[in-house]
Amino acid sequence: MPGGTDPGADERLRERARELSPGLFHTVTQGRASFDHVAQARRIRQRHPEYGAESRLLEQLAEDRLLEQSGEAIESEYWCTREYAGCALTSGGRLMSVSNTQHRELVLIEAQARQLGRDVESVFARRGLASTRMASATTLYSVLTRVMATADLLKDDAATARQRKEALATLRAEWGWARARTQEAIQRQARFEYFLGVLGGLVAALVVLGLVGWFASGHWPRQINTPAFLAATLSGSVGAVVSVLERMMPRQEERPARRRALVLDYTAPTHQKVVIGAARPFVGGIFAGVLYFAILGGLLTIQGTASQTQNTPATFAFFGLLGFAAGFSERFATDILERVVARSNATGAEPGAGEEDVDDVDTEQPSAQVDDDAQQGQVAEPEVEQPEKKPEGGRAREAREADYAI
């Protein structure tokens, strides 16, 4: 500590530091210190060089208090000479910064870098990921030092407009690269945790769907083709897993727009990502099961296939392929289901067979004419106005007759 080895001198230095800034001294010795208190202590000797010894003592006490609170010592730090600003990186990969700059872009980049640093701490919190956490934090710390250096340059009245412009351009380029690199590392870890949930969900889905098939074979052997049902639902769960794997592959320029890379909310806790991933195989199996019942119920007609009630290899393979497609592509399954619902609604809205449309026939009989004819001994046939038949349009006829085909 400053003050040498003389205990009396150390005590007098502490007393002068207490008198210089009573509130700051109390915080760094008994309260909860922050990096801002380190900056305040350092600021004292920048404004009043004559209090250099007291300022260094307060700064050291603040850093010691931070170490005591978090268990992480400050490993690297950077301070501005003109602007009230600085940043630090701890031994555990935690980023800290303080800045009084009024430049809008610098304030935004500093805030975004610190938030991304907190995300790094959260995602790579496990002990086995310490090296990855430290590497990502070091990348972001480099950005913060660039922010501080740029703030110092903008504060310099002697700096030219070109120097200011180049400093901001360099900061934008480094921040863009660091943000992309860090977010990719975070996404990679979030995808891994998500896929662990998917694998666990696949095992659970196979067990649950197998039990459902066993129950159906014992209670509804005539209503359900159990092998075809299991082929569809189990393949749907497997298709969902393959879909997740395909979207986790490294991004490629030629990747079709309909198969975007898997992007997760990495700020969610690990258990939430695992649970959501475990639900994915169940969703694929349910989609496949719904399509199976739609075909079995006649709401969805597949051209060129044998009866779906026959237990044949072709039927088994057909439902296995259809179930895999439903689990692999949610858009494929939802598109078919929407068409099935639309066709079901259209079928329910059509008039029943043998029913007449009462609006097209004038059933009102002129009572006066009937009475006159009855007095003459004749009963006149009521005049019925035949409705004019309009040719049915090609689209309407096709909508009534055509079945949805794959």
Give the SSE layout.
Elements: H1 7-20, H2 22-29, H3 35-47, H4 52-70, E1 74-79, E2 85-90, E3 95-99, H5 104-123, H6 130-155, H7 161-219, H8 226-248, H9 270-296, H10 313-328, H11 330-349, H12 367-375, H13 394-401
Antiparallel strand pairs: 1-2, 2-3
Helix pairs in contact: 1-2, 1-4, 2-4, 3-4, 5-6, 5-7, 6-7, 7-8, 7-9, 8-9, 8-10, 9-10, 9-11, 10-11
What does this 3D model show about the protein?
- The protein is 65% helix and 4% strand.
- A three-stranded antiparallel beta sheet has the order 1-2-3, with helices on both faces.
- It contains 13 helices and three strands; from the N terminus they run H-H-H-H-E-E-E-H-H-H-H-H-H-H-H-H.
- The termini are far apart.
- It is mostly helical.
Task: Please summarize what this structure is.
The chain contains 13 helices and three strands.
List low-pLDDT spans: 351-406
Distance between the termini: 80 Å
Instruction: Tell me how many strands there are.
Output: 3
Portion in beta strands? under 5%
**Principal-axis shape:** elongated
Radius of gyration: 38 Å
Q: Looking at the chains present, what oligomeric state does this protein adopt?
A: single chain
**How much is the average pLDDT?**
81
Number of domains: 3
Q: Name the strands of the widest sheet in spatial order.
A: 1-2-3
Percentage of helical residues?
55-70%
How do the helices and strands follow one another from N- to C-terminus? Answer: HHHHEEEHHHHHHHHH
Main beta sheet: 3 strands, antiparallel
Based on the model shown, name its key terms.
13 helices, elongated, 406 residues, 65% helix, mainly alpha
